[in-house]
Structure prediction request, 398 residues.
Amino acid sequence: MVNIAILGFGVVGSGVYEMIKNNKAVLTETCGCEINVRYVLDIRDFSSHPEAEKFTKNIKDILDDPDVSVVVEAMGGSHPAYEYTMDCLNAKKSVVTSNKEVVATFGKTFLSCANQNGVSYLYEASVGGGIPVLHPLLKCLSGNEIVKAYGILNGTTNYILTQMFKNQKSYESALREAQEKGYAERDPRADVEGIDTCRKICIISDIAFGGFVDPDAVHTEGITAVSGEDVSYAESRSCSIKLLGYTKKREDGIVVIVAPFMVSKDFILSNVDDVYNAVTIHGNAVEDVTFCGRGAGKFPTASAMVGDIIDIVNNTAGKNREFGRKDVKVVDYKSEPFSFYLKLSGSCAGIEKVFENCKVLSASDSSAVIITDKTTQSQVEDKVKNASLKIERLIRCL
Ligand code: HSE
Prediction:
């Protein structure tokens, strides 16, 4: 029997607890032994829970129990998740997490601490919910030079965008539904302002490029400024609008961007709706691979965490690949070429002369909506300044 502890009995922690119970036969067969939840740590009162004796409010109960070998951190937030994770690793207990905030911020420290203690720190559930995306990057694709990765990494915002634009729901009611379904963060600003997507694309970048990308250094836009007008123009071009995390290796470093993109229907991501996430990874040998599935929710997230537990129990996790092995420079996002959707104001009569080869979607003397040729944001801003125009809206196109 392998004894585990679960830290946090919210949506994710209770999902792991229930999945271990519901799938007992499968897990016992896969691991060759039973997985037993010995402790659940939560500050709330669970005295009427059928297994109330398992609940504790004291992390020391877990740290001091030599029979607990795996700890599931499903608390969310940075503190005390950071302290408890370090304590568990130093007590030579492997840790499995879904907490992208701590992985993106402290992953470098945790992975090195886990290696020093000869235990595992696994975080598959921190990116893409139930989708296996980090394991393929760390294992099956690890012989490739990764060129770029981009994806829909936040279920809440994808759910909101889909409900607003396919089912004509209001932003507020779509957000409320995402909260009721357990997709949204405690503070939904982390979802709608792109912070959650940023943490996830940083984790992907850290694995793919071997550096450490500080989430605070990443240009991050959310979905709050996306308007019905943007969507109508997107639809008129057979595109959808998706909040993407984007990371790409270049000669001079890596570029990392979080922003709404106008995604052409030619891309699989364009048709990924509701709570689904999808990540496309481009390796120099494999070319494009796209992973798609439920990016948030109780059991999809539990599925990834239980997979990590099995990896530890079966001794197949291997040595932790540390973040920050290389110095990786994050380059100016304004130097990355895209084609841009621009809504401009000012004297727009000669807009085709300012943006050669642009496609004009609508124009009057005082405003224009255009799609530019491939260029950079720096060049766009220079042209706009020289022509005394103003950018009212800018969306990158994929
Ligand atoms: N709030 C996150 C999302 C949860 O909506 O994707 C999963 O990380």
About this structure: The CA atoms of residues 69 and 161 lie 41 Å apart. Residues 100, 129, 154-156, 183-185, 191, 196, 295-296 surround L-homoserine (CB under 6 Å). The chain has a mean pLDDT of 97.
